[in-house]
């Protein structure tokens, strides 16, 4: 979409699929068809990816409606009118229980 930033080029993208996406805007939950993209696994936390979308979307007049950090990863949603874009980083673990270790990260983007 010309209303969205160009796809971040610092990562290799392995998954692109259409799916029903759920966006949160204030107290509203919005379900819409959209596009989901996911990067290949990387070993270093992709902070530049998060910084890129945060600054690009802010510059385009988007407002941040959600920001969460959990053991499973980091997620942010930005909205402008009826356009929503969620992006973040999933933490990838190997093993289970006490032997569970953080093994890498996958960046993702989804938008309507």
Helix-strand sequence: EEHEEEE
Q: What portion of the residues fall into strands of 2 or more residues?
A: over 45%
Structural class by sheet pairing and helices = mainly beta
Number of strands: 6
| Main beta-sheet annotation | 6 strands, antiparallel
* Shape type: globular
Amount of helix: 10-25%
SS summary, helix count: 1
Q: Biggest sheet, strands in spatial order?
A: 1-2-6-5-4-3
Report how far apart the termini are.
10 Å
User: Which stretches are poorly predicted, pLDDT < 50 over at least 5 residues?
Assistant: none
Structure notes:
12% of the residues lie in helices and 57% in strands. It has one helix at 47-59, and strands spanning 13-25, 28-39, 63-70, 73-80, 83-94, 101-111. A hairpin with a 2-residue loop joins strand 1 and strand 2 (28-39). The termini are close together. The relative contact order is 0.26.
């Amino acid at each position: 979409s010309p209303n969205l930033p160009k796809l971040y080029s610092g990562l290799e993208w392995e998954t692109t699929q259409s799916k029903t996406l759920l966006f949160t805007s204030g107290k509203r939950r919005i379900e819409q068809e959209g596009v989901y993209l996911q990067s290949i696994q990387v070993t270093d936390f992709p902070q530049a990816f998060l910084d890129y979308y945060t600054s690009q979307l802010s510059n385009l007049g988007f407002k941040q409606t959600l920001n969460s950090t959990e053991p499973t990863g980091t997620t942010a949603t930005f909205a402008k009118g009826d356009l929503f874009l969620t992006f973040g980083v999933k933490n990838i673990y190997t093993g289970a229980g006490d032997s569970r270790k953080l093994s890498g990260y996958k960046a993702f983007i989804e938008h309507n």
